[in-house]
Design the sequence.
């Protein structure tokens, strides 16, 4: 479906399609432990978030040069544009690259090459959000923020991702405070696999403006009432939830009930190369399987712009 929409929850490393992974592996002399793209695709059967993350980090070995990051982002933006995305707020995971000896300047420089041409080339405006890996230390997150200071003109905000359970938001209080002091916007994954209390903590301790996933808020009626009252946007990713088994089936996804409850939901694709669909595919899937009508779909698309970090009225009107 080509309803104009904004994508607010998208990990650029999660857009690495098997074909591009093999192309980059060949270019960089990296050997992947899969015979071909079919064998790689066959490995896309996940038990939970961690089993996905293992493959997600493993495949990043093929991303080495600025050109690689530029090619990755360019391929994503072309696909997104074809599915009606007019604005994309793109996560990246610097620590997953610096840990392999790929510098932050290479990552940001490469992504930026594709992003700065995106409006003219694809009709898609963009923002970059730098995520800290929550299963790494708070000190490593702070060092990453410091290392990013030369690039802050290209980075709109910070986020928090990777393995959630056992890594509560409060672990990153200081680095989120420091990010806010630098004028960065704040978001965090919370309530994907972790408990509803992590959502509350992300809001109260990290000061986030949006909650990524936030799915498990449904277990706490008081929290739902607060999210409704404060109009906190949730960046839901239903296809991801199915693949990572946080819901049993797409038909059982609580999205319709969440909309009925008055939550400000948005629809997103998370890691589309791994989870079976980009933004338009996600809209199509929830329309077909959850029976959402046109009005609900328009509400989701409208929410995506309202919850975005687009500020200037003119830019918003141009969408
Ligand atoms: N959850 C947490 N971390 C991630 C994800 C996700 O769905 N995708 C990439 N990093
Ligand atoms: Zn995510």
Sequence:
């Amino acid at each position: 479906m080509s309803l104009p929409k904004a994508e607010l929850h998208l990990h650029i490393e999660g857009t690495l399609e098997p074909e591009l992974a093999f192309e980059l592996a060949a270019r960089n002399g990296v050997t992947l432990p899969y015979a071909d793209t079919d064998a790689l695709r066959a490995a896309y059967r996940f038990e939970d978030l961690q089993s996905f993350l293992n493959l997600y980090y493993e495949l990043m070995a093929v991303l080495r040069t600025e050109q690689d990051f530029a090619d990755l982002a360019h391929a994503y933006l072309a696909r997104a544009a074809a599915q009606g995305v007019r604005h994309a707020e793109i996560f990246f995971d610097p620590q997953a690259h610096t840990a392999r000896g790929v510098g932050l300047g290479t990552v940001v420089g490469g992504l930026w090459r594709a992003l700065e041409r995106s409006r003219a080339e694809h009709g898609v405006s963009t923002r970059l959000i730098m995520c800290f890996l929550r299963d790494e230390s708070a000190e490593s997150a702070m060092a990453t923020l410091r290392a990013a200071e030369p690039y802050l003109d290209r980075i709109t905000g910070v986020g928090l991702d990777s393995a959630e359970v056992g890594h509560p938001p409060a672990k990153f209080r200081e680095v989120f405070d420091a990010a806010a002091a630098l004028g960065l916007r704040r978001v965090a994954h919370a309530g994907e696999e972790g408990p509803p209390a992590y959502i509350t903590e992300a809001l109260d301790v990290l000061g986030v403006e949006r909650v990524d996933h936030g799915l498990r808020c449904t277990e706490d009626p008081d929290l739902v009432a607060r999210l409704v009252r404060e109009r906190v946007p949730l960046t839901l990713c239903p296809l991801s939830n199915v693949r990572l088994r946080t819901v049993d089936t797409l038909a059982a996804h609580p999205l319709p009930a969440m909309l009925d409850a008055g939550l400000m939901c948005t629809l997103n694709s998370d890691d589309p190369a791994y989870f079976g669909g980009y933004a338009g595919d996600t809209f199509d899937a929830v329309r077909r399987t959850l029976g959402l009508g046109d009005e609900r779909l328009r509400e989701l698309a409208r929410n995506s712009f309202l919850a975005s970090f687009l500020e200037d009225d003119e830019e918003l009107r141009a969408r």
The first strand starts at residue 5 and ends at 11. The CA atoms of residues 24 and 68 lie 7 Å apart.
